[in-house]
């Protein structure tokens, strides 16, 4: 009876979450890779570790992971929409600041647009986060 790879974790936190989820479903997962500490340090937590289960549990493990992915999809979609909304609100502000910089000095217009957009994005995201936390 061999081991079948059912998931490739991207870092330690991802590995722990997957292993916990599979163990909760009464499966027997195992980390198949043990990266060198230098790899862990230099990759800033983005190293890959294969997760395997016994071959007879592979179908159940894939089903558990598919359900987990389906559960998290609405959260990911919600965060994506929120970020897009924040970006769309901050772009006109950045354009306005870029235009002001262009009026005074042509060379700094791009910097004005960049910093204006980033600054507005930070302010808008902080305001919306405080609003959500107060509700």
Structural features, described:
- The protein has helices at 12-24, 37-42, 58-104, 109-134; strands at 3-10, 30-31, 48-54.
- The protein is an alpha+beta fold.
- It folds into two domains: 3-72, Alpha-Beta Plaits; 74-134, no CATH class.
- The chain has a three-stranded antiparallel sheet with strand order 1-3-2.
- The protein starts with a strand and ends with a helix.
Highlighted features:
Alpha-Beta Plaits, single chain, three-stranded antiparallel β-sheet, alpha+beta, 2 domains, 135 residues, elongated
The radius of gyration computed from the alpha-carbon positions, rounded to a whole number of angstroms, is 23 Å
The total number of structural domains is 2
CATH class of the largest domain: Alpha Beta
Report the count of strand segments. 3
Helix content: 55-70%
Q: Main beta sheet: strand number and arrangement?
A: 3 strands, antiparallel
The low-confidence runs, each spanning 5 or more residues with pLDDT under 50, are: none
Strand order of the largest sheet: 1-3-2
Q: Supply the CATH architecture of the largest domain.
A: 2-Layer Sandwich
Termini gap: 53 Å
User: Overall pLDDT, averaged?
Assistant: 82
Topology as a string of helices (H) and strands (E): EHEHEHH
Shape: elongated
What's the total helix number? Answer: 4
- Beta-strand residue percentage: 5-15%
Kindly report the CATH topology of the largest domain: Alpha-Beta Plaits
Which structural class fits the helix and strand makeup? alpha+beta
């Amino acid at each position: 009876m061999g081991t079948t790879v059912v998931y490739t974790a991207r870092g330690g936190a991802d590995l722990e979450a997957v292993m916990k989820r599979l163990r909760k479903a009464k499966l027997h997962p195992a980390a198949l890779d043990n990266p060198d500490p230098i790899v862990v340090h230099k990759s800033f937590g983005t190293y890959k570790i294969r997760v395997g289960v016994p071959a007879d549990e592979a179908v159940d493990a894939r089903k558990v992971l598919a359900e987990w992915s389906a559960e998290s999809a609405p959260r990911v979609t919600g965060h994506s929409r929120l970020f897009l909304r924040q970006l769309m609100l901050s772009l006109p502000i950045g354009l306005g600041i870029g235009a002001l910089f262009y009026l005074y000095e042509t060379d700094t217009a791009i910097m004005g647009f960049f910093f204006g957009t980033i600054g507005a994005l930070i302010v808008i995201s902080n305001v919306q986060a405080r609003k959500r936390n107060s509700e």
